[in-house]
Design brief:
Layout (H helix, E strand, L loop, with lengths): L1 H14 L3 H27 L1 H7 L6 H23 L4 H5 L8 H12 L7 H18 L1 H29 L3 H19 L5 H11 L5 H23 L3 H10 L13 H16 L1 H12 L4 H5 L13 H18 L10 H5 L4 H23 L8 H26 L21 H4 L2 H5 L1 H12 L2 H17 L1 H14 L1 H8 L4
Length: 495
């Protein structure tokens, strides 16, 4: 059965019209993944030295055991965004005369064949050999490594259950974001040392195999929890309809006050919530709000007078990340329904203005949510205000203009991670406004006067852009109308 399923998947991949592109992308991902795993292995070889020299802990084993909880929290987060669900494959086989439980067992087993499940082994395997084996012996090193790896594999099955159970609601986003936020806050302010609380579990694995048996039990239970949920919900009508109706009536009513453009923005908001790829972008937008904690609290970025120029990038990133990520696929999001807008009176104009309205609204929300960064100083709030105005007045127009270069179609139901549908060279170049445009205004004034004058110039440039906003947005709408036949022809290509 497994060989048959693998053969069918291979035939589907080969017969796809995008086979050559998929091969090139697969080779690129394989090379990058191999480099990443190799670096993890090299990092594991020097992990004991890093613990002693950087953390200042003489007992490297105790130091690692105290930090393992934070590694698992990080693993929980990156698995949530990267780990793929086997549900898409499940839909293709439920109508066949094959036992449902057998199909689910095979699909769950195939999901385990992932490079993510080798990370803990590559990272902590060399540490166990170089540090624990000489000091404690072979059996303690083996039991400790098994305890670490079994915990990581348990997270694999837990995430498969968690994503399928909560991905269609805000619960999953809140839980993952809350776990990340609480771990960072507790560590930064030394409120609770969660790592030291769980350290005895892995220390006990050095003296006894009991934790290994307990964690093996947890692994088995997590697998059958995942299996039971998939088997209970493995019905075609649930897999096909559940995702599309979860957010069917969740709109932003106030957008209707902005006329036809507001109605289109409201439809775009529903599109974001209904589909995996757009919903992932929105989730990453909320996660990246914590990006400032990396810079604003780091001593290396503190200066005696003014502020570090790197903060301009941070402010632009935090307040404009949604328009950068979502805007780089400006019209690709609407590729399945582009003909509908193209044949409506003022349909394309309303589509473009609705997207402008949505970008501005979510950027305003990001700015408001980032206001607590004033804890690090009033200059941070001024930076966010200036970069927010610049994003609305300048960056947003640049992003939309670049996104109109040869847009490509895409399938909205596919995930965002390692999915390059809709992406091209022009879409990748959209990162340039984020890097270059703010500094083109800020640096000259900062050099000739001071940092705050440069910040003021940045905000004024944004206000000027807002002043001519109606004219520029109309020009963008007219450009879309002029290109509508070329865009429609590109969107009709078979994925």
């Amino acid at each position: 059965m497994l060989i048959t399923l693998m053969r069918l998947q291979l035939l589907k991949w080969i017969r796809s019209s995008s086979f050559s592109r998929s091969v090139l992308i697969g080779i690129l991902v394989f090379i990058l993944g191999s480099f990443f795993l190799a670096y993890l292995f090299l990092f594991g070889l020097v992990l004991n030295r890093l613990v002693r020299e950087l953390m200042g802990i003489s007992d490297a084993v105790y130091g690692i055991n105290s930090c393992l909880l934070y590694f698992y929290l990080l693993e929980l987060i990156y698995r949530y965004f990267i780990q793929q669900l086997p549900v898409v494959s499940l839909e293709r086989f439920l109508h066949l005369p094959i036992a449902k439980s057998r199909i689910i067992h095979i699909l769950l087993a195939s999901s385990f064949l992932s490079p993510l499940n080798s990370i803990s082994l590559l990272l902590f395997g060399p540490f166990a050999v170089r540090e624990i084996l000489p000091a404690y012996g072979t059996l303690p090193a083996l039991t400790w490594l098994l305890a670490v790896v079994l915990t990581s594999w348990s997270i694999h099955w837990f995430i498969l259950w968690f994503k399928q159970r909560f991905e269609d609601s805000l619960t999953g986003i809140l839980v993952i974001s809350g776990a990340l936020f609480l771990s960072i806050i507790s560590s930064y302010f030394s409120l609770v040392d969660l790592g030291a609380f769980f350290e005895p579990v892995f220390t006990f694995a050095l003296a006894s195999p009991v934790p290994v048996f307990l964690l093996l039990t947890v692994l088995i239970l997590s697998y059958f929890l995942c299996f039971a949920f998939y088997r209970q919900n493995a019905y075609l009508e649930e897999l096909s309809d559940g995702e599309h109706v979860a957010f069917a009536n969740r709109d932003l009513g106030f957008l209707s006050k902005f006329g036809l453009a507001g109605e289109v923005a409201n439809l775009e908001w529903k599109l974001i919530l209904r589909h995996k790829k757009s919903r992932t972008y929105l989730t990453l937008c909320l996660v990246f709000l914590l990006y400032g904690l990396v810079f604003y609290s780091h001593p290396a970025y503190q200066v005696e007078s003014g502020f570090n120029s790197a903060f301009i990038f941070v402010g632009t990133f935090i307040t404009g990340i949604f328009m950068i990520q979502y805007g780089q696929l400006f019209l690709s999001w609407n590729s399945p329904a582009f003909d509908f807008y193209a044949h409506q009176q003022n349909g394309l104009r309303a589509l473009v203005r609705g997207k402008y309205l949505l970008f501005a609204g979510i950027s305003l929300l990001c700015f408001i949510l980032s206001m607590p960064y004033v804890y690090f100083g009033w200059h941070v709030l001024f930076i966010h205000l200036a970069t927010f105005l610049f994003n609305l007045g300048v960056t947003m127009h640049l992003v939309i203009y670049l996104a109109l270069w040869k847009p490509k179609p895409m399938d909205l139901n596919k995930g965002a991670i390692f999915n390059y549908e809709g992406m091209g060279i022009s879409q990748l170049l959209i990162i340039l406004p984020l890097l270059v445009a703010p500094y083109a205004i800020f640096l000259p004034f900062s050099y000739w006067f001071d940092d705050y004058i440069g910040l003021m110039a940045l905000g004024i440039a944004g206000l000027i852009g807002l002043g001519v906003f109606p004219k520029i947005s109309s020009l963008m709408a007219e450009k879309v109308i002029q290109m509508k036949y070329d865009i429609a022809a590109a969107f009709r290509q078979e994925l």
